[in-house]
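Minutes, project check-in
Item: structure for the 360-residue chain
Input as provided by the requester:
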Amino acid sequence: MMVFISNPYDRLEKSLDHIFEYFQGLIDPAKGFFLKPNIVFPVRPNSGEITPPKLVKAVVAAIRKRYPGNSILLGEGTAAGTVPEENFRESGYREMVSRIGVPLLDLDGAERIDTSWKYGTLSIPTVVYENNYINLPILKLSAAAVISGAMKNQKGLLTPSMKKHFHRLGLHDPIAELTRVIRPHLTILDGSNFFRRNLLVAGGNVCDIDRVAASLLQIEEPEYLRLASRMGLRSTVLDISGYTEIMSKGKPHTHPVYKKFMKIRLWSNPRACTMCRMAFFSLKKIPLREIGNLTRAYSKMLRYAVQGADFVFGSEPMYDQRAPNVICIGECTKELAREKGYQHIPGCPPTDEEFTRNLP
């Protein structure tokens, strides 16, 4: 199957025209469109953590130009522990959709249909099946999954409880199995975190997209991609078209095993879900009326930033203690904290109050 790499020196509109021209055979012109960007965190539009609203707006314009009159929906499920409307507002998506007149769905509350898969039953939003499903991920490095790209972006379709369950299953195998169940009509991956802003990688097979992404970054292929290959889910022969010269210009990257702020390390792994990692956003959400709690929490974090602290997550924590303090986050690390005598912050995930009250 073909993968198309857009010329990053072209205008975004021109790149998208080329993509929809190349892959018009994958689209059913009698159906509407469901667009699934990555909007999992309440962060600014160009943070690099979410699909930029500018790209999605341009995709909508390209669809309207080529398929006038077809309905268009946007939708996203939240990273567990976040609030959908806050994500939409802070990311600029709520304002963007109000300007272009496209509905923005909170998939956590969407109508769903059950389908069987390796681990039982998956509940998938009906809009995925009723429309041309366009997958719009942004390429990121991931401590839990090596890269977050086309395959992992589909995890946003799941219910909050199933997202948590994916991590308990080890993340990689369920991501590969999810690809058996749901296959987008078209994926357009944003590579602006690593290349020029308008570099897009597009195709009809999410496995092929991630294969090209890993090659561009000169990084090891994620385990879920290797599993998908053994399942026969990616193309045997890969035809790469478009701006192919970028394939020889990529710089080697290594996926992080932790995120670092001064001497604070946040260790992650496939069994550590976003819910507990998001607990650190609690410091931003403490109401001003609780200024005393806010001051104490920031004072503690500043102390750890200077002295050093290893924060660990997940049911099978992976970490290398490099600091005098080890702090375990969430119920999955309760046993580790008990065995090693580490500090522990309870909750699944910890609430704002639990995090600030129990932060040692």
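Outcome recorded: Residues 76 and 107 are 5 Å apart (CA to CA).
No further action items on this chain.
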